[in-house]
Amino acid sequence: MPRISYAIAGALLAACLGAVAYAQQPTQPPFVTTRVDGTENVYIFRGGTHQSMFVVTTAGVIATDPIGYAREPIDPATARVMAARRPRSVELTPVGLPAVRALVERFIAVGFSKFVLRPIAPPSSWRAELETLSAAVGDLQT
Question: Which residues in the chain land under pLDDT 70?
Answer without folding.
Answer: 1-30, 47-50
